[in-house]
Structures are given as C-alpha cells and as structure tokens.
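F-box domain-containing protein
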Amino acid sequence: MTNLPILSQQSMKTDNNLHHTALKPTTLKMDNKDGEEESDSGPGTDWAELTQECLTNVLSRLTLEHRWRGAMLVCKSWLQACKDASLHSAFDLEPHFGLAIDSARWWTPEFERKIDSMLHSIVVWSDGSLSEIRTRHCSDRSLLVAAARCPNLQVLSVKSCPNVTDISMSKIAVQCTNLRELDISYCYEISHESLVLIGRNCPNLKVLKRNLMNWVDPSEHVGVVPNEYLNACPQDGDSEAAAIGNSMPYLEQLEIQFSKLSVRGLTLICEGCPNLKYLDLSGCMDLSSRDIAKASLGVKDLEIKRPNFYIPRSVFHTERYGHWSLYDERFQTDVFRI
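Tokens:
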C-alpha cells in the first residue's frame, strides 16, 4: 500500500511510519525587540487556542494524505476539525494509485474493506457536499452510501472495482442525476443496463470512460489481477455501444479501450452521440480503419484514437486472410509495418 493514505482509524493508530508528533500544537517563539519572547502568532497564543474556523482554514491547506496521516492524530479537537464538511467536497485517491506500481494486494478483500471504510467516512463527513469521488477497489457497500447521501455528485471514477455492480450503479443513476463524468473502467460486474439507466437519468454526462483490460496481451496483468477476473472480461461490446448511442446524446468524450464492439456498435455510437469530440478506440481489434472512417463520417470535428497493433505472425495463420498485407489495414499497425 505504498504511497496510499491511511485508510481507517484503526490502521492509523498502528502505522509505525506516522510522524504526527511534528504536527502537535506548539508555541513557536522568538525574541522581540525588547528581548521578550513572543509566539509567531502573537503574545500568549499558540495553535491549541485556534478557533474552529481558523483551524479548519489551516487544515484545508493540507493534502488529504497529510490530514489522514498526521492532523487527525494530534488531538480530539483536530480530529473533529478534520471532519468539517467544507474539507470534503472532493475525495481523490487517484494520484496515489497512479504513482504506485499496480499491486496484487489491491485486489484483496482486506484492501477493499479499507477503501470502503475511508470512502464511507468521507461521504458521512461531507454532509451532502461531496461532488467528486476518484478511487479504485471500492465496492457496492460504500457506493450505495454515496448514492444515498451525495445528491450533488458530479464526478465518479471507480476503476478496477470487481465488486462494484449494477446494484450500486442503478442507485447512482437515479439519485446522482448531476453526474457529468463517469469512469467505470475495468469494472466487469457493471453491465450495459447500468449504462442505459445512467444515460437516461444523467443528462449532464459529458465524459464516459469504459475501458477494458488488455485481453490481447494480458501478460501485464498476470500475477496482479486474479485470473478469474481477467477471464470475466465483457464479451458483447455492441450491447454497451447500443446503450451509449441510444441514451447518451450529449456525450463529448468517450473511452472504450479494448472493447469488443463491431462496426455496427461503433455506428450506433457515432449516430447517437453527435456531440462527440474525442473517441478512444485503442485495442478495439474488430475495427478496421475503413470501418472507423465509415461509421464516423457524420460526426464533425471528432478526434479518434485508433487501434494500433503489432500482430506477430505466429499468432495467426497467413491463409486466414490470404495475404499479410491485409493485416496492415485490419489491425492498424502504424508502428510496425507487416
């Protein structure tokens, strides 16, 4: 759990790496021009005498990690100040996941419970003001609480969550109708039915990220992601494409890396989402450059990130397509010319 914040009150108490003593209330003193000592905040005052408003203002300047690793452990008044709703309009753990190497420990039930515990606390403390959630490896347990208590939620990013399902997504769709950005990449228990509900109930949705893991070359996930989860990769990309095209007309940015959609599904997206500005099709092996050009013909100013593959000759038999030159058009081998 390198570089990640402490994830529960109990784990905070047992973490030997905490250096919270440096944050204890102290009086910083210096000599004034008369040779008398005074604190940097005025004679006879120290951090322990700060009002709740001032203390909250100070804590707002700390990062989420510093509040959880240090400030919460100083004393009861600091812990109470850290729970102030004004400090919890956003919950963003993504930078910590992004900086660390993907770990098999993140896919364990124990780690998921810690993330759920932390998210649950933030949701409760926010008192309805939470508008942004960016985390990974949470579950329906915490998201159901978020759906019930965060009506102003605008950004939800819950990548790599094997236990986030249609159950919580349906509640999010109905109760968080101000949603404008959704990232459910690598969440294989979320089906196209949730996409339909979200599209119908969240008219402000502009950004959708529904990327799948690299099933073409899963070696990067082996030993980290459980095999049974890798094998559960959604198979029917066209059903999800139809859900997006039929229910999200105002979508502007869409990422569907390694989706198994066909040209029919891509056509449904392009016809149903005329406001698309960016479309990421990386890894969509069933689409050729000709398919993409034809399907997106009616969408103006659309930037498309196309599939880009190097397909080793050992993977396929040449007689399947009759000639190796067909692979250049079929699989978009822009880097390696076969």
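Strands lie at 29-31, 37-39, 90-92, 132-136, 155-159, 181-183, 207-209, 253-255, 278-280, 303-305.
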